[in-house]
Model the fold of this input.
Amino acid sequence: MEPSKKPRDKKKFWKPLLFAGIPAAAAAIVLAIVLPIVLNRPEPEEVTYQEFSSLVEQGQVERVEYTAGDPKLPFYRVDDETEYVTDNPKVEGFKERMLLAGVEFEEKPTSTFWNSLLSIFLTYLPFLFFAVLLLRFLPGRGFSVEAATRPDTTFDDVAGLDEIKEDMKVIAETIKNPKLCQELGAHITKGVLLEGEPGNGKTLFARALAGETGVSFYSVNASEFIEMYAGLGASRVRKLFKEAKEHAPSVVFIDELDAIGAKRDGSTDGAGREYTQSLNALLSAIDGFEDSDGVLVIGATNRAEDLDPALVRPGRFDKQFVLTLPDCQAREQILRLHARGKKISPQVDFAELAKDTVGFSGAALEVLLNEAAMQALIQKAPEITLEHIEQASMQMLLKGHIKKGIGNRNQTEHTVVCYHEAGHTVATAYLTDHALRRVTVLPTTSGAGGVTMSAPPSDKMLPKLEDLRSRVMVLYAGRAAEYWLCGGKEAQVTTGAAEDVRAATEVIQQIAMFSEEAGLLDYREFGLAGQKKMMERCQALSQELWKETVEFIQAHAQQVEAVAKALLEKDTLTGEEAEALLHPPKLEGEA
Ligand code: ADP
Ligand code: ZN
Done:
């Protein structure tokens, strides 16, 4: 449920009006003066170019106002205030001719630019001021700070992460009872850093901490502290912390802390200065807290290593927690949690589903169940079944909706996709310990070819070198199967494997670091020369693994053929169907 917001102060409502009002009034005055002048300006008198030329010869032209590109040429006669205009001759040497004839030659910047600027300015001015006015009223913008909320999220809404929860509960106690802690001589944490990929529950955790302890919760994104106007970001930081202190005990959550807190090369351009100012304001705000103030700052970031060291010094964000992707058990808990309030068929086995969703973040799991609910709704089913969940996960993996039939592909292309996917499938089955879950060649709106889903036997945190090598081979196997299909003619292989190659490049870089012969070194650390060496090493690895994959596919051509034929027939194979094709039940008497 969304936490309810406290009504904003009346006083704050008027401030933005004032800020928008002053410039608006000023603009109105300027308009009142400028508009009549612009409107009352008499039309210039048109003169043919021949007439103009003879006037020049008679020495009657005092001044021309020349604008390159303008079809018209305004000019003024001697002792005459009237503005005349003739056609712009647009010939070379015109300026010289005028100057020789004693005519003052005034060159103007391209008038179309100024004219259009003026007309844009005049047309949009009123809208601009309405927009400014509106912006000032939006929450979190302008000079006001987002009001505190009291989230009703608790630690029960956070699945897994039990160790971190324990520690957080202790920290929560210290905000509520700072005096008690001081008496015990306990050090009070002022800042906590939550590190982890998006969707791993950083925001959820911060919110739960505030909800659990019933304190005020302020949530901002650090990018809001980067403002177009110098110093505004910093003043916003100060304002936020002043509010938090007034409403203490409170939790201030700063998402994407890197926006102001990333290490920088000391650039002093406008943006750089603004960062520094906001960062310094944040640092001094944290330093300015007394232990008894009861304010806890929680920062969220993808990578703590990238943060300015000043931020993670003792007394600032000195407690750090890493929120990793959920393991199998946590995934099951998260799934159960988000299944609450959804009509899910009792046949859905959450433990099995957790095994199938390796690599899903908490947010992705939530999306999965919501998408499945959508599928059920579209199909007017009475409850969410495993089939709906599988369709949803396919859609998420393929990043698009599944099209009917073979989509925009022609039959040849479709056949190639089937062999490509068959290559991935066979390699997965023979080169890894992953279980095949599902293979599909259904076209999607995102243009992805197909997908082979598999699941590892457990959440292996640290893959072995050989695991990485087979991962690359599985990625290459799609292309290798295409290569085999067209008889090894490289030019005929499709470029459908671009994603595979990209993923393989990442894995190969990991492998390259662990080569005893080349030195156990991360060459990327050694500047250009190192990068070159790293690239050479990766190149050699790629060639070696590609060759191995091609040989592997050749040796397993029969199996590739079998899977491809099955895919041509039915678009999608379940894990069991694929396994049955690859490992047919042994006949009696066979070893
Ligand atoms: P982050 O801030 O790390 O990007 P969020 O906290 O915004 O991630 O997570 C997005 C959503 O994902 C949450 O609102 C929640 O529904 C779900 N989620 C993530 N992690 C968990 C978890 N451990 N338990 C339950 N739900 C989770
Ligand atoms: Zn592929």
Notes: The longest helix spans residues 10-40. DSSP finds 20 helices and 13 strands in the chain.
